[in-house]
Amino acid sequence: MALWATLALFTAASGGLPPFQLVAMAFGLSACLCLTKWLVRGEDVRAHLRQPAGAWALSVAGLFGFHFFYFLSLRSAPPVEANLINYTWPLLIVLFSGLLPGERLRWWHLAGVGMGLTGAVLLIAGRGSVAFEGDHALGYAAAVCSALVWSTYSVANRRYAAVPTDAVGGFCGLTALLALGAHLAFEATVWPDGAGEWLAVAALGLGPVGSAFFFWDYGTKHGDIRALGAAAYAAPLLSTLLLIAVGLGAATPAVLAACILVTGGALLASRDLFRRRA
């Protein structure tokens, strides 16, 4: 979550790069770094890439599909409304987790993720007026698709727990190629201007559009998926706090309320973890 919290900051610092071009560059860097690691350590690259077709389809659909629909929603609807719809994915993760073998939803899971959603709504709605209008129906539908794609991928990924997390390097590579295709089809190329923007792109590939997905892959396969869903609402909160820290945002009562709701919700949804430790 901490890595995803830097997404807004590094994206802003990268200048005016088109979104699909930025995704292609960041995922491409992440894939290249993973490939370099395999080669330096003398690992079998083909073994890392030789994964079940279902794992490839699910992971690439999750990584590329989420970004495709998310950016489409931002192009076709106001960003405040699009983000409000998109950030239902942590709630959907908790709800869908009830379909996994051996998992049961309790009231504290739903209450915790509900508190997190309320905190996210306070943060996002505070950036502008909210007015859902029929003219932006395509954008709203795309935001719904982005939330469904990411939540479905996150829960279904448990099915491929035997697939090593290193394989995400290959998934990132194919995602970069698909993003490049979308860029060439829908966007005009804009290169970073100056060292600062190039460093921001590199930071994206190292962090929120790179290593973050390796951590998420491991967490969804081996962690408490319901606690992860509730804790995901920390991403917009930490992002807001980071923007405030660097002078690009303002501390408001809504931010304080969101801090309380998101933190409290994550702790409540993680009740099972604390009970096991006790």
Features of this protein?
14 helices; 0% strand; 73% helix; mainly alpha; 278 residues
The portion of residues forming beta strands comes to under 5%
| Helix and strand pattern | HHHHHHHHHHHHHH
For the secondary structure, the number of strands is 0
State the helical fraction: over 70%
Largest sheet: none
Quaternary structure classification: single chain
Explain how this protein is built.
With 278 residues, this protein is mainly α. It has a domain at 4-101 and 129-223. Helices cover 73% and strands 0% of the residues. The protein has helices at residues 7-13, 19-40, 45-49, 53-76, 79-86, 89-97, 107-125, 137-156, 168-186, 195-222, 225-231, 234-245, 253-269, 271-277. It is globular. The two termini are 25 Å apart. The model has no long low-confidence stretch (mean pLDDT 83).
In short:
With 278 residues, this protein is mainly α.
Element layout with pairings:
Elements: H1 7-13, H2 19-40, H3 45-49, H4 53-76, H5 79-86, H6 89-97, H7 107-125, H8 137-156, H9 168-186, H10 195-222, H11 225-231, H12 234-245, H13 253-269, H14 271-277
